[in-house]
Amino acid sequence: MPWIITKYLITAAVVVIVSEVAKRSDRAGALIASLPLVTLLALIWLHVEKQSTAKIANHAWYTFWYVVPTLPMFLVFPRLLARFGFWPALAISAVITVVCFALFALAVKPFGIKLL
């Protein structure tokens, strides 16, 4: 139990740090947020918990493919935010992300990459 609490605290600290830095500097907050810190922590947790190298490698592999279709959201959200406000823009962005993900999954399937 102490291990899981440690993982929660460290992972939560990353999110808090990003939001606190973003309050002071948009660019610095975005830079930290764009780093794959959560993925790095997940890889570390998997390694420390003695998961197989295949499991760790698969996590990194699929993380790459799952990130790609989320990228359009970061371009669309600022425009939607200015037009519709925060919550509607967030909801529309989430729908766009789901649609992009489904289309992307279909596009990469012929190449042997199964995301769904």
List the keywords.
116 residues; mainly alpha; 6 helices; 0% strand; flat
Description:
- The protein is mainly alpha-helical.
- Helices cover 83% and strands 0% of the residues.
- The chain is built from 6 helices and no strands.
- Helix 3 runs antiparallel to helix 4 (53-67).
- The longest helix is centred in the first third of the chain and has 23 residues, at 2-24.
- 2% of the residues are buried.
- The model has no long low-confidence stretch (mean pLDDT 94).
SSE topology sketch:
Elements lengths: L1 H23 L1 H9 L2 H12 L4 H15 L3 H14 L1 H23 L8
Helix pairs in contact: 1-2, 3-4, 5-6
Outline:
The chain has 116 residues and is mostly helical. 83% of the residues lie in helices and 0% in strands.
Query: Mean pLDDT across all residues, rounded?
Result: 94
Poorly predicted parts: none
Task: Supply the number of helical segments.
Answer: 6
Radius of gyration of CA atoms, rounded to a whole number: 17 Å
Q: What fraction of residues sit in β-strands?
A: under 5%
Query: What is the tally of beta strands?
Result: 0
Q: Describe the global form.
A: flat
Q: Give the terminus-to-terminus CA distance.
A: 32 Å
Structural class: mainly alpha
Q: What portion of residues is helical?
A: over 70%
Order of helix and strand elements from N to C terminus: HHHHHH
* Main β-sheet description: none
